[in-house]
Amino acid sequence: MTATPTPLVKVKRKTKDRNKDGTVREKPRVLITIIMGIIAVAWLFPLLGILITSFRSKADVDASGWWTIFLDPFGQDWSLQAFGDAWVALDAGTTFWNSAAVTIPATVLPVMIAAMAAYAFTFLQFRGKEIYFAVTLALMVVPIQIAVIPILQLFVWFGNATGIPIIGQYPAAWIVHATFAMPLAIYILRNYMQTLPNSLIEAARVDGASHFQIFWRLVVPMSVPALASFAIFQFLWVWNDFFVAYLFIQSGPNQVLQQGLYSLLGQYGQGWQRVAAGSFIVLVVPLLIFFLLQRYFVRGLTAGAVK
Amino acid sequence: MAIFSAVISVVLGLGVSFLIFWLLNWVVEKTHDKTKARLLPYVFLLPVIILVAVFLLYPALRTFVESFMEQSRRRGEGAKFVGLDNYISLFTDPNFLSVLINNFLWVLVVPAASVLIGLLIAILTDRLGHRREQSFKAMIFIPMAISGVAAAVTWRFIYFYAPPGNPQIYLLNAIWTRLTGNDPVTWLTIDAARLNSFLLMFIGIWLQVGFAMVLLSAAVKGVPEETIEAARLDGASERRTFLLVIVPQIRGTVLAVFVTVTIFVMKTFDVIYAMTGGQYNTSVLVVDFYSQLFSFQNPGKAAAVVIVLMIAVVPLIIYQIRSYKSQEELR
Asked: Which of A45, A71, A74, A49 shows the shortest CA–CA distance to A61?
């Protein structure tokens, strides 16, 4: 996700329940609840489809639409078979760990590197600071495709020159993900660090602390909310990414889950229940993160755009 | 063994980077005080500068140069300068013009629809109690956590085609055949009036409304209650209050959400690639880049496609910097 530098939320309004005229409001609320209920169910309907399909048998899936289960829930041949099949087809025993190996460093590295840069942009004085920051803002919009061909060439050249292949290995994806996360990360973290009390940093300076000590002992611990919300974003983004993995990891021993799902999608002739179960296996981690850390996630969304 | 090599590379990767941090620290501590003060900001910025220079700015420049080159088909032979040939052949190709039209439609439709639906949901849920508001919002928000490929799987169940006579197991065709009694339709291949592109855009909207809703909802809550009460006291209807009091106060957010979704749309690759592979006139610039590069083995033309994309995002860059500047002035 990319955020934009406009102040989004300015004033807080606390009077949520406008119950001043009491019962009069009850009626439209029932109506609104019904309308919202319909919208929300419609929104989740496509996902419900794959969830239900993944528990059906191939014969059932081929014979009737998944929504027919509502008419006859007990006449179905329910089974967990599809999950086992999909696990094998995804090669999830390998691809799951590959996804983790790509995602964790591709999340931690940009957060740390960007935090350092954000510190410099917030607390240090140097020439051209404004210009560098404007460049950072501009780079937030630049599409990754602009760099793809030369980076591939660079990796090939490096592999030929040193004998260490990079393409197909995890670090290729780390580098690309880290680089393209940088502008947004710096932007979010700098915005957050600007809200930290300057007096505290001044006091630490007077006490003789070096900038590195201040950074590690003071600013990083105080910036945990912003670091966490960006890290969640980046984690979801990298975990869900297909394009970078497809180009830089390529098919081979280090394939990630999304690539497995993409090839599984091509085998839908062997039964949609496998594809559906496969997508749920791929979705488990993002959905867990989403539900457990929803508060940070939403805060991060607003933080990206709110100073 | 996969878990083993995964753990090892994670540890190695993180270890090396912490070593770099430590080394930088050490270097700074060793330098003299005067040079230290001047050097320090650049030490903090060094990792970013290296990453961005080597893997973003330099490649971007190369891509620009390459868009004027043609790679030799034979191995070992270098590229030759062909001037504007790549661009000319792109802009005289009806397929590419159709890509541009699609991209234009995506950028127009998806952000606008996401903002409108997001605003509608934000306003409706704002009138509900806290519990119900939160649960409805969470439901609308879920698609944001989903990968493009998984979204494609999900929507294939709706848009796909089973030949007549077979059980209609795909939702859209099931409804279509039931309602009209006609034969099922191959929805994703119909490019008349860009129908298939609009169907794909719907997936984009489905993915993005949650984002728009969260930000717009925060903005709607930020509208001071007094202004709304004042309008009510003056006898303004709900609709007029909304249009004349609330909307003007959240205009900044609406614009920001619109731009952010536009940036996202410009990068949408996975969904289209996994749904149609860009066939049947559904391609957009980022998908066309991929086809030029790999399907047609033409890096020069692929580079030209990116440069066109780059030119298309220039207004967004200008917007980013402008709104940042006005924000700084407010500080």
From this structure: A49
